[in-house]
Specification:
The complex is a heterodimer of chains A (630) and B (348).
Chain A (H helix, E strand, L loop, with lengths): L18 E2 L1 E9 L4 H14 L4 E6 L8 E9 L12 E4 L2 H9 L6 E5 L12 E5 L1 H8 L3 H20 L3 H11 L4 H21 L6 E2 L10 E4 H11 L4 E4 L6 H14 L11 E4 L3 H13 L4 E5 L1 H6 L1 H10 L3 E7 L16 H5 L9 E3 L4 H18 L2 E7 H5 L1 E4 L17 H7 L27 E2 L14 H19 L6 E3 L6 E6 L3 H15 L3 E6 L1 E2 L3 H8 L3 E6 L5 H9 L2 H4 L2 E5 L8 H11 L16 E3 L4
Parallel strand pairs in A: 1-8, 2-5, 5-6, 6-7, 10-11, 10-12, 12-13, 13-15, 14-15, 19-20, 19-22, 22-23
Antiparallel strand pairs in A: 2-4, 3-4, 9-16, 14-21, 18-20, 23-24
Helix pairs in contact in A: 1-4, 1-5, 3-4, 3-6, 4-6, 5-6, 7-8, 7-13, 9-11, 17-21
Chain B lengths: L34 H16 L6 E5 L3 H4 L9 E4 L5 H11 L4 E7 H5 L3 H10 L3 E7 L2 E2 L5 E2 L22 H8 L3 E6 L3 H13 L3 E7 L15 H7 E3 L3 E4 L14 E5 L5 E5 L10 H13 L3 E8 L6 H4 L12 H4 L3 H9 L3
Parallel strand pairs in B: 1-2, 1-3, 3-4, 4-8, 7-8, 9-13
Antiparallel strand pairs in B: 5-6, 7-13, 10-12, 11-12
Classes of the chains: A alpha/beta (630), B alpha/beta (348).
Bound molecules: thiamine diphosphate and iron/sulfur cluster (SF4).
Amino acid sequence: MATDLQVAPHAEVPASQRIINDFSIQVATVNGSGSQTANLVLLRSIFQMGVPVSGKNLFPSNIAGLPTWYTIRASRHGYIARKKEIDFLVAMNPETAREDVLALEPGRAVVYDEPLKLNALRDDLVFYPVPFDKLVVEVTRDAKLRRLVRNMIYDGVLARLLNIDLQEMERALGKQLARKAKALVLNKGALELGFKHTDEHLEKRDPFYLEPMNETGGMVLIEGNAAAALGCMMAGVTMVAWYPITPSSSLCETLIDYLRKYRMDKETGKATFAVIQAEDEIAALGMVLGAGWAGARAMTSTSGPGISLMAEFSGLAYYAEIPAVIFDIQRVGPSTGLPTRTAQGDVAFCAALSHGDTKHLLMLPATVEECYTMAMDAFDLAERFQTPVFVLSDLDLGMNNWMARPFSYPDRPIDRGKVLTEETLARIGEWGRYKDVDGDGIPYRTLPGQWGPGFFTRGSGHNAKAQYTERPDDYTRNMDRLARKFETARGHVPKPVVDMRDGAAIGIIAYGSSHVAVEESRDQLAAEANVQTSYLRLRAFPFTPELGTFIDRHDRVYVVEQNRDAQMVMLMRQELSAARIAKLRSVLHYNGLPVDARSVTDGILVQEGLKGEAQPETPRENVVSMVGGE
Amino acid sequence: MSSTAVTPPPKKTNRIGLETQVYRGSKTTLCAGCGHNAISERIIDAFYEMGVDPRRVAKLSGIGCSSKSPAYFLGSSHGFNAVHGRMPSVATGALLANRDLLGIGVSGDGDTGAIGIGQFVHLMRRNLPLIYIIEDNGCYGLTKGQFSPTADVGSKLKNGVVNDLPPIDTCALAIELGATFVARSFSGDKKQLLAILKAAIGHRGTCMIDVLSPCVTFNDHEGSTKSYAYAKDHDEPLGSFNFVPFFEDISVEYEPGTTVEVTLHDGSRLLLHKVDGGFDPTSKMDALRVLHESAARGEFATGVLYVEPNKPDFVTVLNVVDEPLASLPLEKLRPPKAALDEIMASLT
Ligand SMILES: Cc1ncc(C[n+]2csc(CCOP(=O)(O)OP(=O)(O)O)c2C)c(N)n1
Ligand code: SF4
């Protein structure tokens, strides 16, 4: 879409100039003002119209009072990455309204709270003043409730302005407030009032319209964390230990809801799982290890700060060979500031978490479907390889709603890995806990309280029979076997998804939530600069041979990541030849916002010499390109 | 010449037909004379005498000389030497994964009182069914003799450094926080320690047992309040008690009003004969008073300090199925397709 829309701010846009099902809406509100319901209803009603849509919540680290933005993108092309430009602003927050309005490109539309007088700021936008306070008085006399339903009025306004069927909105509202009859009535009133007010007092002058499509039929809307929770339940998780932290909490909280509903034993009414809110993340992982050691399917979920605390136990689990599933819903850096913003900043840390020689398996889900399937994969791999498996999601993927085809029911049984049985013992003759019987580096374990001989579990000092040793050769032998086990894992982790384009000189590599931006960026590169690209999406660490082959097939390979230091490239440097490394370039996005296609496209075009240096577009944005290679 | 067949004397076995040898572990690598070794011996005796099947025991520990000791008893049981101060969390996971396990954890006063105090506190709150032993020598043995948080004010290190911070009384803390069996003993008091350990095996809930266990290498000198000599002089047993295991039908005679009788989870009985008729081990207030009073005199009270036999343990509180979670079959773990369909339908 052109950035300088030719709009006459005073007349209805002729049909030929309308922009249909391809724009973004941003709602700027105050945290804690009850805007979540209004925003989800808006998202859901567009989804119900069959228009591909995505929603992103940009919220502060605060319970109430600070600014928050919710961005919805409708895209008839099916693009669901964050769109950098805002086309339609709903300015409800006096604190940010000025800045929000000034950041818009010409020709965009603004619905605003009338007393803010935002129309005085610019004359190249379409303004729609709405007297929210006056209107809300008509909805309810209760001042407390007014605050909560006030936001629903803008949904009504948008329904009228954007052409959303009011019935669809009411249906979405009904879904959102299914069990709150009284709130439903009030909110419906607010919705209708906003619609009616707009109908009677405002004249549609912007070019943005929604029209029903048929692209979302049968699909679901789900957050990555809920999808992961579902995967954990289907994987047969039996032990969950966690400590609350945004953006990870909703994973365990949703899981608890699911487990309570679907995993109570029919006959006894007792739980087929144990969930503990631990005293901290050290204890959470300790509990997971104790449970994994004793044969449970155990998991925890956390974010960067928790991962930091889990370092020592992660190393112990690697050395002592104990299965554990650890979700890391990544967020920005330490302590206060941007803890509620997204990043892919824990990649290098998790891959080698702990002291000593440690290497961990990483799962890299890019979609909600993969949050679901990789949760199941993670449990199987953890038990198969008797080692911690980290699932690296992030705030963007985990806490936002994404469209997806309904998940399919798992078609294979769970893999409990190598647990010694009487038959195995008969076959192998002599058992040692850390003995490599099958040549794949994976030993057989026994479980306390179950059939099989006992053994003593320690960190670094043990021989193949789990006896205490400090002998140099024992240590080396064991470390080499662990390395062999890691090599075996290389053949079992999810393989990358590769889209090889004939004749493309440029390859793009991405992982996790950067995926959706890359997909869109590839179309932009082709359309705008006639640059054809191949694409490899990494889905796990260790890397598989597809990675090297992909690099070999291209002259230059751009690795897109949401961190400053090109962490995935760091891991590649450990594994790839110098010739392959020399082909790598980085496109890095690390401002706390989900990466968008424009940033990826510009990052590549600049390095290709096809475009001048990208300028940061608004104070909240920042794009940095860095050249990789030796 | 005639020969006489010699029948070897029958090997002594316990209630479940096992020899004491089965309850031993590998050879200790701790210093000769270390209190921790004596405690390992008592653990061996207690499990043998109670006839516990070693295959259902999980041994857990943190890091320290004390935490090494699980390798030196119950060699056929599974053991887990975790990381420093974090044994409680590992024990919690293991015992929830398999509720049939009998958990015994060994820690040190540094492992518990310093780096592990947070996990200790939360373990006590949860009343996890675990025997938790602190082998308490007032110092860090494995890192060569620094003070630990249980060292008394005025106690002196070998190099002359005097401790000037008050000690943490792990027993008082445990009682306050919710442990349901709390005792203190001395590694040199074989009889009392053995009886306490046997009673602990019969209890279901957290058994916190602080055992004074002198470090002969770093903290057994004149001026230390955790030396053998000091311990012998300042041990104040709370009065005698009898432990009657559930499998023995023994009646103990006592004058009414002189004895508190407690029936433990497995049906064993604990008969605690009162000193001066004053102390009731089912009363938190009594237990805390005794601890404070004896500490004020510069002594340490030993014996069973507090028992609360009927408080639900953590596994019960969590309403976990009777079968170990670790061995549940897939049918019980993966909800049917209808469940997934229902969830998906709610998201359209
Ligand atoms: C995280 C960590 N910090 C420090 C140490 C070093 N360390 C090993 S044992 C120990 C103290 C053990 O003291 P205590 O628990 O009293 O046991 P003891 O050796 O006296 O039986 C310390 C500090 C460690 N192993 N891990
Ligand atoms: S150093 Fe002290 S605590 Fe450690 S084994 Fe020797 S005597 Fe025991």
